[in-house]
Amino acid sequence: MENRKLVKDIPAEDLIVPVRAEGRLARALDSDIFYSWRTSPVTVVATFVALSLILLAVFAPLIAPYNPFNPASLNLMDGFTPPASTGAFTDNYFLMGADNQGRDVLSTIMYGSRVSLFVGILATLFAMTLGVSLGLIAGYNGGTIDAVIMRVTDIQLSFPAILIALLIFGIARGLIPANQQESMAVWVLILAIGLSNWAQFARTVRGATMVERQKDYVSAARIMGVHPILILLRHVLPNVLGPVLVIGTISLALAIIEEATLSFLGVGVPPTQPSLGTLIRIGQQFLFSGEWWILFFPAVTLIALALSVNLLGDWLRDALNPKLR
Fold this sequence. Notes:
The chain has helices spanning 12-15, 24-29, 32-38, 41-58, 60-63, 105-141, 143-157, 161-175, 185-195, 199-212, 216-223, 228-264, 276-284, 293-319; strands at 85-86, 93-94. It is an all-alpha fold.
């Protein structure tokens, strides 16, 4: 009995269970989320496709075969060159063919993806910021503020997002002077798409905030006299970010498609800054005349980008749901 040691007599450092993997990166590789990712072949492929397209867009000025927006490098005689062919009057090689202006389709896709991703990411961040802020305010305060915000949300959700974006885009273009409309077109497009997609963030965050505000840690913060804004930012917001990240990922794919739709309709980015939607609008004019590649490759790129981001959003929703682990 004398040789036995009680737990309280053992040094604290001897009771610590050694961590199997050291460092943040190693712990992340041991996490349930990474295990869920690497055991899902569809998610791995979607990640590879999304990252490849994003990197091609980001580094387009460095790796694109040609600069499609430099008139000095274009030759109209190369127009409608088929894929994997050399220009009739130049030595330029077009892996995906050339469009009606003699621009390399592969290069235009790289540069066009930059515009689509730029608009989609900023519009999603804007919608997320606005929706999360209003959702936190509505869910925490309740009462009249909650009723007003939720009724506005209900009204917006009753209309298709593309129609709301068209309305906002038209109003904004009407308020901007004519000599500034082309330079402000991208920012107006971001504003229109962002204002048409904030409602789903607000509704989701409002419901999660109403649950969190009833918990003990929020009540304790109130009793201690912590300002409501600090309670929302320090305590409530971190606990509602899971659904927000899932919605944000899916909304990014929808924002990219919405931008392409608006550009296809001719109310998006100007021709001097073509996106994937603008390239598709140009390509559909020549689809039935035999120049299929002008439409086909930008359309496939848009589908691959939107689908891969959407699949990542679906995986993230399941990975963050403890019931599905």
